[in-house]
Amino acid sequence: MRYTWTLVTLMSATVWAADSYLVVQLSNHSAATRIEIAGAKSEASRLLSVVGMKIRWVDCGRNETACPESNDPRTFVVSIEEMIPARLVRSLGYSTPLTERANRAVINYPRIASMPGVSVECLIGTVIVHELAHLLFRSSDHGPGLMKVEWSPEDMVRIGQSRLKFSPEQAARLHDGLRSRAESETILALNRDR
């Protein structure tokens, strides 16, 4: 019986891996260093790999025209910013999950850099993944673990130790959201071909 369960789990993971990639166009309009950006990308990639997803990174640097707008529903635009709207200045990041494309997120670098007890790289990567989850869920709702509305000092320690994670239900929602985007891409392609 145990072998059967393991086989089903492995088959499920294989199905996820086949269609579970997303593209992140990343631009940096902040004081974040190349080392911090590299570390953040590594942490974000690691966090999503735990749930069977991969990120294809496109570096836009400081020039947004280097990354033209994409119609691909698997493409997300993440910008690390120095200047944040006043009403959001206390947040670590924000996203636009309820817009038509639901593909944009902003990371608040000054707020992240001021947080004690965790490396900037780990925190940027974790916030990127948190905001990508909102976009994939098409929801501003929060929940346990990585999707908390506000992380406690203990959570910050877990982030620094790479131990703050998605729940199994959240992992399934991530895949459902990405699969839904991929299906909409297929439908759009079929309609264009008519």
Task: List the main descriptive attributes of the protein structure presented here.
five-stranded mixed β-sheet, Collagenase (Catalytic Domain), disordered N terminus, alpha/beta, globular, disordered C terminus, 194 residues, 16% strand, 6 helices
How would you summarize the topology of this molecule?
Elements: H1 2-19, E1 21-29, H2 34-50, E2 54-61, E3 75-81, E4 93-95, E5 104-108, H3 109-113, H4 120-137, H5 153-160, H6 168-193
Parallel strand pairs: 1-2, 1-3, 3-5
Antiparallel strand pairs: 4-5
The 3D shape can be described as globular
Instruction: Tell me what portion of residues adopts beta-strand conformation.
Output: 15-25%
CATH architecture: 3-Layer(aba) Sandwich
What is the strand arrangement across the widest sheet? 2-1-3-5-4
Number of domains: 1
Query: Could you please say which CATH topology applies here?
Result: Collagenase (Catalytic Domain)
CATH class type? Alpha Beta
